[in-house]
Amino acid sequence: MFSGLVETTGEVTAVDNVGDAVRISISGRHILTDARLGDSIAVNGVCLTVSELDAASGVFGADVMQESLNRSSLGDLRPGSAVNLERALRADARLGGHIMQGHVDGTANFVSRTSSEHWDVLRFQLPEHLVKYVVEKGSIAVSGVSLTVSAISDAATADAAAEDAANSQDTTRSTAQHEAEHWFEVSLIPTTLAVTTLGQLVVGETVNLEVDIIGKYVEKLLAAGTPTSYNFPSDTH
């Protein structure tokens, strides 16, 4: 479990192929002060297990299976790549961001950056299968950073509504709606730009997205139907 509050950025020092997976070595001394083998660390929002550890040099290694490479941007990492790092959330810590699992739901391209005096507005493509989970002022994780959605495309809003209508047996959804470009924006303060990799993103780069887990659970529960009654166990004391 993570909160999306990036503790530090690290640097990839090596990427080694090990058959059907890769082993990524990352320099991140700050987060290794209490690290142990088997600990979970989010790397650009992907939960990875520490499989090698050299606390003296501040480098840890993690194995990434093909499934994770296919579903995330970790396959793009090369020696010298900067990554966002966060240790697993402690039960006694403040939840400053939002609840995250480190399970990437999809990837997106960075579209544009609009800079102002005190913040930057970043726009990202929004994969169609994630449209219904992203709402204005809701939470989303971008490469492991907990952010608030400051704007969403009208097309995305319309497409989500069209999907709801289709699920209600209204199949009038047009091809134009279906293929419309979807995007969302986040507004970043100087601190976020300085302490995460988002400040250095280049247009066209791929980022990892994780939507709010609560929305996915609610969707599945509603789809399963609401039970009409529940028999509580009797008090045996």
Summarize the structure.
This protein is an alpha+beta fold. The chain has helices at 66-71, 154-167, 175-178, 190-195, 213-224, and strands at 8-17, 21-27, 40-43, 46-54, 59-65, 82-87, 106-115, 120-125, 139-142, 145-152, 183-188, 206-211. Residues 169-180 have low confidence and may be disordered.
Written account of the structure:
By secondary structure, the chain is α+β, with helices and mostly antiparallel strands. Helices cover 18% and strands 35% of the residues. The protein has a six-stranded antiparallel barrel. Strands 7-8-11-10-9-12 form a six-stranded antiparallel beta barrel. It is globular. The two termini are 36 Å apart. The relative contact order is 0.17.
> Rg to the nearest angstrom?
20 Å
Biggest beta sheet summary: 6 strands, antiparallel, barrel
Share of residues in strands = 35-45%
Q: How far apart are the termini?
A: 36 Å
Annotation, overall tally of beta strands: 12
Described by the principal axes of the CA atoms, the overall outline is globular
Task: For the structure shown, list the relevant keywords.
single chain, 237 residues, alpha+beta, six-stranded antiparallel β-barrel, six-stranded antiparallel beta barrel, 35% strand
Layout of helices and strands:
Elements: E1 8-17, E2 21-27, E3 40-43, E4 46-54, E5 59-65, H1 66-71, E6 82-87, E7 106-115, E8 120-125, E9 139-142, E10 145-152, H2 154-167, H3 175-178, E11 183-188, H4 190-195, E12 206-211, H5 213-224
